[in-house]
Amino acid sequence: MIIEESNLQNWRKAGRISAAALDYGKKLIRKGSPLLEVCDAVDAKIVELGAKPSFPSQISLDHVAAHYCPAADDRTILDAQVCKLDVGACVNGAMGDNAATVDLSGNRSELVAAAEKALAAAIEVVKAGITLGEVGRAIQEEITAYGFSPIRNLSGHGLGKFEIHTKPTVPNFDNSDKTVLQENEVIAIEPFATTGKGVIYESSNAEVFMQASDRQARDASVRKILEKIRSYEKLPFAKRWLLKEFPPVKVALALKILEQQGIVQSFPPLIEEARGIVSQSEKTVLVKKYGCEVLTQSPD
Ligand code: CO
Fold first, then answer.
1. What is the Å distance from ligand 1's center to 124 Cα?
2. Active site residue 282
């Protein structure tokens, strides 16, 4: 989305809080820490800093590329894994989205560097008038130079007011898309590098959901839960957030019905097809005439 100058302060603030939350979360990723505790702590940090989570914080491990959000009873303990932490903050509808990889295995530093260098290369070329294909090429060249594959069916994206994913699709390879970036457009660039095939599939058992329609539920029994879902303002939410107020059986049934009716959409974990290990690096940027401004810039 192209941002009005008058609204830029909100986007800069959302970006700053996103980056601070990512820094904070990275420090909590240590062997022996419960994954659920880290995610809860990062979500709470975002609120403490004066924003709301743009989406529930997620930590995807090893061959899980993205969208692993812990259930209320998640027992995962961080160990020798490659951990992708994806977090974002929302300020009055302005959105931030950023991610980083923490390598607890101790032997995947090249894979982590590949995603980081690819992001830096993309940021280097982004400016108004560049094509999306060219951004993808910068990412692809960097990742393949390391001997890894970019994940081709995962991409960066535009951000809009209360919209975490909107046009354009920012590819992680040269897909020859001739669409050009516009001045003052906000996009998230997120290269994924893998030792596998470079293709992900959607698994099942989603823990992340989002309201997708303003329609009322036909079923009276799910209306109370839908009311709560509406309070998230169409930002993605975690199933476990609903469990603080409603019993598990009701939540599971309501989400099932609402998804069938197209009122709610689910985001299951995304798995690398060859079970390759995956790294990710992501920042939100504002496209400028002669370059870009990183909105999720960490102060240090
Ligand atoms: Co993103």
1. 19
2. yes
Which residues in the chain show pLDDT less than 50?
A: none
| 76 alpha carbon – ligand 1 mean position (Å) | 23
165 is catalytic: yes
Predicted confidence (pLDDT) per residue in 58-86, tens digit: 999 999 999 999 999 999 999 999 999 99
Tokens of 116: 């980081």
Distance 247 CA to ligand 1 centre (A): 31
Distance from residue 249's CA to the centre of ligand 1 (Å) = 31
Single-letter amino acid, residue 66: A
| CA 156 / ligand 1 centre spacing (Å) | 6
* Active-site annotation holder among 43, 62, 63, 97: 97
pLDDT, tens digit (0-9, with 9 covering 90-100), for 12-60? 999 999 999 999 999 999 999 999 999 999 999 999 999 999 999 999 9
Helix, strand, coil shares, percent, the chain, to 5: 30, 30, 40
Given the residues 43, 86, 134, 207, the one annotated as active site = 86
Q: Is 234 left (phi over 0), alpha (psi -120 to 50) or beta?
A: left
- In whole angstroms, give the CA distance from residue 105 to residue 221: 46
| Residue 159, both tokens | 């951000």
190 labelled catalytic = yes
Name 295's Cβ contacts closer than 8 Å, sequence gap at least 6: 11, 12, 14, 15, 16, 18, 96, 186, 283, 284, 285, 286
Q: Is 198 left (phi over 0), alpha (psi -120 to 50) or beta?
A: left
Catalytic entry in 103, 190, 207, 293: 190
At 218 the pLDDT is: 84
- The helix (run of H) or strand (run of E) holding residue 88 is none
Residues 6 or more apart whose Cβ sits within 8 Å of residue 68:
58, 59, 60, 61, 207, 269
- Cα radius of gyration rounded to whole Å, the chain: 18
Is 97 marked active-site? yes
Classify 30 as helix, strand or coil: coil
